[in-house]
Amino acid sequence: MTSIHRKIVYAIFAGIFLISFSLMLFYGKETFYVEKEAASKQVYDYHIALITEEVGNEYWSVIEKGAMKEAVRQNVYLEYVGPRQTDNEEKLETMDRMISAKVDGIIIQGLPGERFKELIRKAVDRDIEVITVDADVPESERKIYVGTDNYKAGMLAGKALIERTEGKQYVGIVTGLFDSVNLQQRVEGFKDAIRDDDRIALIDVKESAITEIGAAQATYSLLKENPQINALFGTSALDGIGMVQGVQEAGGNQRPFIISFDTLPQTISLIEQGSIAATISQYPEEMGRKAVEQMLVLMQRKPYEPIQHTGTGIVTKEEIINGEIIQLPQE
Ligand code: BGC
């Protein structure tokens, strides 16, 4: 090749390289610029914090699901925060942090003690709306409660025990946490339902720390310390599952009559298998959905109902086919 030819070939290659390089820069910039612009364009109307009992708790994930769907629908930025394992102090600290972050609204489970009420006051003073969900503290300045009528739900469990058993019943209760407002109400409702029935005697109440393993241990001790126990009532979502394990671990040929709480898939399959007799249903997805919906009602200064119960019912084998509840009975 002569030197002129070589120069022409080099010039062609250089030209192709320059054209491709410019195209790459142009289209690359276009692509990234558009993406960046789209990300920064997402502007929400409100910022709401949903403070959970436990991040990762299956029951609370259903509340989150309902809340998130509604938040997306209403152009709300929903922040789901809380402790990894239930801890009231941590929930209160999270609430304080959310107030400092100037969110528009806080959805939180009602907590016991003065500090909770003080924090609600602090929020209200800063124009932050508070809705309680799942458990209520009516004597606080929260505007709305969305959730189960917990006393009534406990009564329902007591009545179910009376209606569905024969002969003397010695009852052990496994409760999630002694200081949970809603679980205390469930135990009270249960006690009031069985109070006048001589056939039913409450023997003892133990705590599960709202974990499956805790419920298994509580059940094991209940049965070992009180061999006469032939009925069990679990007040929170994972208690039923743990209670079945505790009964197995305790051995013996006793098969206690078990009433649990909530309709998590594992509970439903234990009912189908006959290990749990009945469960009290709650509507956590609806709680989440309604709490966000009602938060917007408050922010738009529309009229509102302070108490919004989401219903309860009893689910037994008759209402389940292939792991699915065929019809959710509501009271
Ligand atoms: C209760 C919640 C609790 C959950 C624990 C539910 O039955 O309503 O308050 O956090 O159980 O798994």
Q: What class, by secondary structure content?
A: alpha/beta
Q: Helix amount, in percent?
A: 40-55%
Radius of gyration based on Cα positions: 28 Å
Number of strand segments: 14
What's the tally of helices? 10
Secondary-structure element order, as H and E? Answer: HEHEHEHEEHEHEHEHEHEHEEEE
Question: How would you characterize this protein structure?
Answer:
Helix 2 runs parallel beside helix 10 and helix 3 packs parallel to helix 4. The chain is built from ten helices and 14 strands. By secondary structure, the protein is of the alpha/beta class. The strands form three sheets. Strands 2-1-3-4-5-11 form a six-stranded parallel β-sheet, sandwiched between helices. Strands 7-6-8-9-10-12 form a six-stranded mixed β-sheet, sandwiched between helices. Strands 13-14 form a two-stranded antiparallel sheet. Bound molecules: beta-D-glucopyranose. Beta-D-glucopyranose binds next to loops.
What's the helix and strand layout?
Blueprint (H helix, E strand, L loop, with lengths): L2 H39 L4 E6 L6 H16 L2 E6 L6 H13 L4 E4 L5 H12 L3 E5 L10 E4 L2 H15 L4 E7 L5 H14 L5 E8 L4 H14 L5 E4 L4 H12 L6 E5 L3 H9 L4 E4 L2 H16 L7 E3 L3 E4 L3 E2 L2 E2 L6
Parallel strand pairs: 1-2, 1-3, 3-4, 4-5, 5-11, 6-7, 6-8, 8-9, 9-10
Antiparallel strand pairs: 10-12, 13-14
Helix pairs in contact: 2-10, 3-4, 5-6, 7-8
